[in-house]
Every structure is written in structure tokens, then in C-alpha cells.
């Protein structure tokens, strides 16, 4: 059996905790070779001690013998007092450190020291808490912070959602729910799978089973775009419901409405229907290992398939019928054709006018009249006048 190793480490942000005393821990989403994803929490002092031990294990790669041979990234030492500002400002460096660490040669990135440090500990799944102590405050790292470290700013308050029906998990990376459970959403993926935490549990949950506490989350969904964005089907899917489409890998389609539950409305020629977004890739976009891995999972449930749920989604959420999608798509396609025909007609008219003008006989220039002898004598030089006279 293949030894466990880490494929990717993503820094999600940090938590401010108040038990046993106020301190900060960084949140890491660790992705393993068996396709599992685990959330672990580490203090920076722990990370720095891990870093020092790694350098001692690989003195050549850490630059202790020759600085030009160093490939293990630098990591600043902890400050005498690590407050929230230093914890926040260190995120960009730490995210870059983890990215470089995983991409080092296998003898370093897959060694037991690295693997064991990022394995799930009991306090990762069951952190020591006190019911009388304030709930930990979560600060998430912006997705583009790796490109713009200066954009790392203050806290992002996690949204609390309520489960509208029971959900039984089908893999270790998912989390089971009971109707009425209150969960904090850490990450919302376009695939329709959201990473949530509930007390001591964490895992992926279908967005279709969640509703916000204060009303429908329509504001987060984009309006339909009937012009369409071109996508390529990366995985075949056979329709189960009447309003879904059956497509094959390699088909080119247009996405006209991106929905939060991960089921997007797409258009194939003049037919529209729902299709799992996790099986689509934007045209011209490079494929990635993470996206390929995601496609190995099953598509999340659709909101419309959750039966007998007393949900505010059922009560006040705006619904667009498939007939409306088709009708508006046909209108858009027809208007696009009309514009194209008008453009071609105008172009043809211009070409015809140009051809007519080219075919017209060109008028010959008039022959100028011969100047009279008196005019010549008035305008010519003295030398010419003597010759004439």
C-alpha cells in the first residue's frame, strides 16, 4: 500500500481563541494522496519548531553548508508577543511557505516529519473549549491573497446556515447533518459543495441542504446571462430529471445561469437544461489536478430534489422555469442572428456601391486651350520674347 503523502496545503486563515487563554491558531486544509481533505489547526510557535527541525534534518537543502544550495524556504521567527496584527500579517508568508514545502523534492516533502506534523490530531477535531468562554473568532484569508499579500485585511464573519433536511454523508470528507442544525460556512465552492463546521465536526456539505438564517440567498447568485459563457464538458453525465441535459465529454456548451447549488443552466445549440458545474471547464482555461480530482466525486443534490423540506427557499425564492430559460435563449439567439444578418446586408450594400463606382466609365480630363501669342509674350521671359520677335 502506498505511503501517505500531502498533495496540497491551503492556508484558510486563522482563529482567535479564548481558552485556556487568548491565542491564535492557523487553519490549514490539507489534501492527501488518497483524495481526502482534512482541516488542522497549528500555532505559529509549533510551525516554527517544525521548521527548525526540518532544517536540521536536511542541512544541505537548508543552506547550512552552502547558502547557494538552499531550497527549504525561509520562515521568520515568532515575535516575543504574537498579537493579532502579526498573526494577520504573517499569512502571506505562511501560505507561500506551505506551497513551496509541498513542491520540494519527495525526500523532503514526503518525509515522516512533514507527514506527521500535518496529520489530524485529536484537538483538531475536538478542540478544548469552555462553554462559558467566548466562541472563537474566525478570520479567513482572501483567495487572491497569494498574489496580493497586502490585501490581507480584517476578519471575514462566517455566515451561519441552517440545514433544511437530514443529510447522510457518503465519504470521509463530508459531514452529516440533521434538519435544523446550524453550521458556519467556511468556503463556498462553485461545485455546490460547501466546507462547513458544526461544533467539533467539519466537512463538505451540499449547498442544497442549507439556507441562510435571515432569508433567501438570491443576492449571491448571478443574474442569467443569455449571451452565454463557453465551457467544455470534462465529464459525461446522463440526465436523471426531465429538465437536465445528457452530454458527453468534449462537448462545447454555453453557461447561461450559475446557481449556488452547483447545478448550472446551460445551452447546447438551442436546448437548455441543468448540468453539474463540477463537470465543466471554461473554454481556454488550463486543466488542474485539483479540478480533475473534484470531478471524481459525485454531483451534489439539487435543491429541487430535496423533498418535504419546510424551507424559506420554497416560500419566497424566485424560481425561473425551464420554459423561461428556453424562451429567452431563443429570443437572444434570434436577435443575434438578426444582428448578424443586418451586418451582412450592410456589408453587401457597401460592396455593391463600391463595385458600381468601380464599374462606372471614368471621365476623360478636358484638353486645356492653347495660350494666345499675346498671353505668351506677357508671361514669358525676356530671352524667350527676343527669340519670338
TrEMBL record:
The Gene Ontology terms for molecular function here are:
phosphatidylinositol binding; superoxide-generating NADPH oxidase activator activity
Q: Which InterPro entries match?
A: NADPH_Oxidase/PX-Domain, NCF1_C, NCF1_PBR/AIR, NCF1_SH3_1, NCF1_SH3_2, P47PHOX, PX_dom, PX_dom_sf
Q: Which SMART domains match?
A: PX (SM00312), SH3 (SM00326)
Q: Where is this region: Disordered?
A: 309-389
- In this chain, composition skew of type Basic and acidic residues spans 352-361
Q: Which PANTHER family match?
A: NEUTROPHIL CYTOSOL FACTOR 1-RELATED, SH3 MULTIPLE DOMAIN
Q: What is this protein called?
A: NCF1 factor
What's the source species for this entry?
Calonectris borealis
Amino acid at each position: 500500500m502506498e505511503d501517505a503523502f500531502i498533495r496540497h496545503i491551503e492556508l484558510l486563515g486563522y482563529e482567535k481563541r479564548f481558552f485556556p487563554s487568548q491565542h491564535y491558531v492557523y487553519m490549514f486544509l490539507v489534501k492527501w494522496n488518497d483524495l481526502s481533505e482534512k482541516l488542522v489547526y497549528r500555532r505559529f510557535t509549533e510551525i516554527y519548531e517544525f521548521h527548525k527541525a526540518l532544517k536540521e534534518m536536511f542541512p544541505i537543502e537548508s543552506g547550512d553548508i552552502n547558502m547557494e544550495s538552499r531550497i527549504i524556504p525561509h520562515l521568520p521567527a515568532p515575535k516575543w508577543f504574537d498579537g493579532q496584527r502579526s498573526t494577520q500579517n504573517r499569512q502571506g508568508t505562511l501560505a507561500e511557505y506551505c506551497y513551496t514545502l509541498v513542491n520540494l523534492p519527495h525526500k523532503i516533502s514526503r518525509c515522516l516529519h512533514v507527514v506527521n506534523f500535518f496529520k489530524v490530531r485529536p484537538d483538531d477535531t475536538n478542540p478544548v473549549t469552555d462553554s462559558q468562554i467566548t466562541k472563537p473568532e474566525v478570520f479567513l484569508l482572501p483567495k487572491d491573497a497569494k498574489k496580493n499579500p497586502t490585501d490581507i485585511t480584517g476578519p471575514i464573519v462566517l455566515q451561519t446556515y441552517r440545514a433544511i433536511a437530514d443529510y447522510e454523508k457518503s465519504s470521509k470528507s463530508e459531514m452529516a447533518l440533521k434538519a435544523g442544525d446550524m453550521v458556519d460556512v467556511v468556503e463556498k465552492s462553485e461545485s455546490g459543495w460547501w466546507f462547513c463546521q458544526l461544533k467539533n465536526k467539519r466537512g463538505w456539505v451540499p449547498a442544497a441542504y442549507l439556507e441562510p438564517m435571515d432569508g433567501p440567498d438570491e443576492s449571491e447568485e448571478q443574474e442569467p446571462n443569455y449571451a452565454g459563457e463557453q465551457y467544455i464538458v470534462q465529464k459525461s453525465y446522463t440526465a436523471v430529471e426531465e429538465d437536465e441535459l445528457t452530454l458527453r465529454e468534449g462537448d462545447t456548451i454555453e453557461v447561461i445561469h450559475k446557481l449556488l447549488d452547483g447545478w448550472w443552466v446551460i445551452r447546447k445549440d438551442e436546448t437548455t437544461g441543468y448540468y453539474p458545474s463540477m463537470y465543466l471547464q471554461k473554454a481556454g482555461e488550463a486543466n488542474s489536478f485539483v479540478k480533475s480530482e473534484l470531478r471524481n466525486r459525485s454531483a451534489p443534490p439539487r435543491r429541487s430534489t430535496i423533498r418535504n423540506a419546510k424551507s424559506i427557499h420554497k416560500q419566497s425564492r424566485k424560481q425561473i422555469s425551464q420554459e423561461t430559460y428556453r424562451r429567452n435563449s431563443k429570443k437572444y439567439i434570434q436577435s443575434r442572428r438578426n444582428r448578424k444578418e443586418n451586418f451582412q446586408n450592410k456589408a453587401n450594400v457597401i460592396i455593391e456601391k463600391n463595385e458600381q463606382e468601380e464599374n462606372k466609365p471614368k471621365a476623360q480630363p478636358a484638353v486645356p486651350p492653347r495660350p494666345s501669342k499675346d498671353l505668351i509674350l506677357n508671361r514669358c521671359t525676356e530671352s524667350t520674347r527676343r527669340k519670338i520677335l
